[in-house]
Amino acid sequence: MNAQRLQFSFELFPPRTPEGARKLPATIARLAALGPDYFSVTYGAGGSTQEGTYETVMGVVAQTGAEAAPHLTCVGATRANIAAQLARYRAAGIRRIVALRGDLPSGTTGTQAPGEFGYANELVAFIRETCGAQFCIEVAAYPEMHPQAPDPNTDFENFRRKIAAGADRALTQYFFNADAYFDFLDRCVAAGIAIPVVPGIMPITNFAQLARFSAACGAEIPRWIRLRLEQFQNDPAALLDFGLEVVARLCRVLLDGGAPGLHFYTLNQAEPTFRLWKHLGLPVPVAGSCGSQD
Ligand code: FAD
């Protein structure tokens, strides 16, 4: 595996129901025991609000002492509102932001977000202009191309804009084809982009949900995986075991091939990520310590 220090992060979303809110602290506790470098918390996706993201971020920090990073999106944002959110997070000790365009409201025409920032590169530039180096800025990357982009080269040029605007790191959309990631890294090297590009990892636990997400975000489910998952639809235990093997193998190939860490889309479920972590033999800190894996 990569000799450099690897960074691991877990993505959460603000709970949408009282039941979800009740369960989240146990999920956070179980995941925090693995010693991630940070948690990130989505914003806007699925109708979550600014306040929900803030509360979840601060809940993670208060409960675990781990670092937490809010996602900020362009959708409907104004400069004044983003500046106020940045000031609030800064005052609360937050030092990392995931800056995104965001999922567009249904019915939006074109690719530009409604509001004062059309694309993520504009949001990144604004954060840098107003906050200097106060935040580590993460952006999204799409090894299989963003679904609204006209072609891979244009999409890559748009990715470059985010780096030029000051992004420090990138987290990828999930994928199941390691070659797409390594090809993306080759394009980064050729373009002189040296920031870490961390693969986003989606545990496989539910075929219908995975198929829905993948259709929406443009992630390809390879035919052989799709066929196997279809067969397991009435056998959830076999599906979990198969999904664990497939995703663990992907993680191993990525780390062995030089990925600088992994970003897990936990979907607020501890167990799938926990099982992957154990299956991969990733280190678990001794009780009481928090954070780094060397
Ligand atoms: P951008 O980088 O702005 O790109 C969007 C599209 O526009 C692409 O097709 C790109 O090629 C094109 N483009 C980019 N810049 C320009 C430009 N200057 N001119 C013309 N075209 C341009 N969504 C949420 O709503 N909330 C979240 O919390 C959230 N978290 C996410 C976390 C990760 C790690 C990832 C990978 C995605 C997340 N998403 C989230 C989904 C994301 O918002 C969508 O994929 C969205 O469609 C694109 O966001 P972006 O930041 O990549 O956009």
Main sheet characteristics: 8 strands, parallel, barrel
Number of strands: 8
The string of secondary-structure elements, in order, is EHEHEHEHEHEHEHHHEH
CATH top level is Alpha Beta
Number of helices: 10
Annotated CATH topology: TIM Barrel
- Cα distance spanning the termini: 11 Å
Backbone shape: globular
Which terms summarize this structure?
disordered C terminus, 15% strand, alpha/beta, TIM Barrel, binds flavin-adenine dinucleotide, 294 residues
Word description of this protein:
With 294 residues, the protein is of the alpha/beta class. The chain has helices at residues 18-32, 50-64, 79-91, 120-131, 152-164, 178-190, 207-217, 223-231, 236-256, 270-280; strands at residues 7-12, 38-41, 68-73, 96-100, 136-141, 169-174, 197-201, 261-265. It has one domain: TIM Barrel (Alpha-Beta Barrel). The protein has an eight-stranded parallel beta barrel with strand order 1-2-3-4-5-6-7-8, surrounded by four helices. Helix 4 (120-131) links the parallel strand 4 (96-100) and strand 5. Helix 1 packs parallel to helix 10 (270-280) and helix 9 crosses helix 10 (270-280). It is globular and about 50 Å long. The N and C termini lie close together (11 Å). Residues 289-294 have low confidence and may be disordered. Bound molecules: flavin-adenine dinucleotide. Flavin-adenine dinucleotide binds at residues 42-45, 71, 73, 98, 100-103, 111, 119-121, 140, 146, 148-149, 155, 158, 161-162, 171, 173, 200.
